Amino acid sequence: MKSITAEILAIGDELLLGQTLDTNSHWLSAKLTETGIRVIRRTAVGDNEADILQAFAQAEARADVVLITGGLGPTHDDLTKPCLAKYFNCEIKIHPEALAEITAFFQKRGRELTETNRQQAALPVCCEKITNTIGTAPGMWFQRNGKVFVSMPGVPHEMKKMTEEIVLPKLRTIFNPPVIVHRIIRTAGIGESFLADRIAGWEKQLPAHIRLAYLPGIGEVKLRLTATGTDKDTLHLELEKQTGLLLPLIDEFVYATEDEPLEKVIGKMLRDKNLTLAIAESCTGGYISHLITSVPGSSDYFVGAMIPYAYEVKMRQLGVKPETLEKYGAVSEPTITEMASIVRAKFNAHIGVATSGIAGPGGATPEKPVGLIWIAYSDKYKTVTRKLMLTHDRLLNIKLTATAVLNLIRLNLPR
After folding, report:
1. 366 phi/psi in degrees, rounded to 5
2. Which domains does the chain have, with CATH numbers?
3. What is the pLDDT of residues 174-204, one digit of tens each?
């Protein structure tokens, strides 16, 4: 089955200057993928006629579908419409139906229709108008030589409504794209290269219509299986089979077989086991607690936390023994062991976890460099510690530590 490809062009200087984040292209990519259309490129283009025309030509040469957002406003710097008219070699005229829709839009809101606004009803005569039911800029549909160009407003809610109600259904009818389905397997505690070595044999036996992608993140690696075909149910069954073959190879590292973050998975495990959690965070400064409480319903299992940053707080408020801190220091296995067990007891929780380390960029010594982190897990049966040697980037160290702590909980929860 022929793969249908698309390129997304986002037009506007504000995108290149970093003044506006291009969320439209991200959203469109996901919707096109759901439809079975493969996005091969996303391009941001400034408000310059020559650059826009060049982008049109390059996109048409590469893709079956070109989706354009932005540049449809009524001001002089909105160049998409005149550039499309020039590219498709046709004049621009007032579109009677578009004018009626824009006039009704302004009348309904009790606003005057100015000449500038009236010009939004002027469209290239070679395009098919796409009605904008919640805005004033109509979309435009061009088709030639088996290729489709669609121009839509840059205003996100206008673009999304137009895409879902008109553009995608029409693309499905014209191209009859293949079915594309995905399966996400999320892992923690293993690097990308080690993971690849472990599953190399399994990866080699994948059929041609199923592709594997490695998506490394902060402290974790996602595996994405993508299957392409004609029948969704059959593809789901094939992905289920392949997942069944994969999991025994990496079972200890897999925390989810759907796209759920680790903090949500941990929350489910704690709730299912009727267990509660308390946290003592030093070097992570409350970040782990933030992740835990970002999950709705976390009050079912999260009791509370302390941020004992200073020595005095570790001793007086938390209760770490002064002799432990004096002999071993705050960043040490004995200290982190006490922190995890004490916070568990102090909050009357089933599980206590703790962090202490040199997040950086300062605070290091020859014996304790930047990136040295100790973490611990404690329940009534055991206390488990881990020594981490991370980076010189403070924020990255905080995030990596948080992932490591969540994974430590996952691995050590009572069975």
Report:
1. -55, -35
2. 4-175 (3.40.980.10), 179-256 (3.30.70.2860), 262-412 (3.90.950.20)
3. 999 999 999 999 999 999 999 999 999 999 9
* Contact of 195 with 187, CB cutoff 8 Å: yes
pLDDT per position as a tens digit, 298-332: 999 999 999 999 999 999 999 999 999 999 999 99
Please enumerate in sequence order all residues whose Cβ is within 8 A of that of 198, keeping only pairs 6 or more positions apart, or say none: 190, 249, 250
Terminal alpha carbon distance of the chain:
47
The answer to whether 223 and 184 are in contact (CB under 8 A) is yes
Q: Do β-strands 372-378 and 383-389 pair in parallel, antiparallel, or remain unpaired?
A: antiparallel
Secondary structure (H, E, C), 342-380: HHHHHCCCCEEEEEEECCCCCCCCCCCCCCEEEEEEECC
The two tokens of residue 153 are 């407003």
396/242 Cα distance (integer angstroms): 34
Q: Please answer whether residues 262 and 407 qualify as being in contact, where contact means their C-beta atoms are separated by less than 8 angstroms.
A: yes
Q: Where are the beta strands (DSSP E) in 189-276?
A: 210-216, 220-229, 254-256
Tell me how far apart the alpha carbons of residues 25 and 28 are, in angstroms, rounded to a whole number: 5
Question: For 123, what's the count of Cα atoms within 13 Å in the CB-facing half-sphere?
Answer: 23
Phi/psi at 244 (5° precision): -60, -35
Query: Which secondary-structure segment (H or E) carries 168?
Result: helix 168-175
Which two tokens mark 197? 């070595």
- Tokens 């488990």, located at residue: 384
Whether the CB-CB separation of 410 and 265 falls below 8 Å is answered with yes
Q: Which parts of 262-414 fold into alpha helices (H)?
A: 262-273, 287-293, 311-312, 322-328, 333-346, 394-412
Residue type, 56: F
Q: pTM score, two decimals?
A: 0.81
- Name beta bridge partners: 129: 140
Q: CA-to-CA distance for 132 and 120, rounded, in angstroms?
A: 11
Report d(CA 279, CA 341) in Å as an integer. 10
